[in-house]
Amino acid sequence: MCKKNKLTIAQLILENEKVYKTENEIKENILEIWQVMNESVNNGLKSDGILPGGLNVPKRAFKIHQKLKNTHTIDPLAFVDWINLYALAVNEENASGKRVVTAPTNGAAGIIPAVLHYIINFLVKKEDKDKVILNFLLTAGAVGLLYQRNASISGADVGCQGEVGVACSMAAAGMAEFLDASIDQIENAAEIAMEHNLGLTCDPIGGLVQIPCIERNAMAAMKAVNAARMALNEDGKHYVSLDSVIKTMYDTGKDMQNKYKETSKGGLAVNYIDC
Ligand code: SF4
User: Fold this and answer.
1) Low-confidence ranges of the chain (pLDDT < 70)
2) Whose CA is nearest to atom 8 of ligand 1?
């Protein structure tokens, strides 16, 4: 449809949404969503202590942020720490019962804000921010819609591949859009990101969205950046289409035993040392 109508993915989704709202309303709503995402990152960076629920998991974002802020030597790999940090911040907020944006779920809420927050903080000029945010979220949203319509975005239905996997795929598409990728490269980025999340089980310890969920968001945020960069090095042609990987994720989820689908009856949830 993008090719037929000579539109980018972001433009196509915008046109589609205009059936419901005016262009200004859509843009305002998207920027409002970003505002909440941004707040969840910033609140997470300021919050120290222990996560509620009984596992006594310490929050990490606050201390890592202090360390990164006070490091003045040049570290070419520091971007990894920053992206990880933003994801940890959002997911610690979620684990504390604070406000986050479901993107596409609460357990996977840190991935999209982490990648976009890094872009906004480090890679764009102030005057370009709104445009970048809109294009990123419209493109990521397009990919999310495909998963929602053709598969599932529920850990209880298809395991964590439907939560963290989908968020990773959405963020990869948004990152690729930011990097001026073609439509085919964006589709490739989203496909790569999901391809390497296939089979991901949901096995939260104690039924709390803490271990492995918080760290898993950081891992997936970096994977999204990597998927976008890999896609940018190709011309968009590739073997497995996004539609195929979405179907594969769904089929894999349906074949997955229930103990790996948000029941906390398998995987890490039963294989940790309880002292
Ligand atoms: S492990 Fe389960 S609860 Fe945790 S983020 Fe993944 S799907 Fe959500």
Assistant:
1) 273-275
2) 107
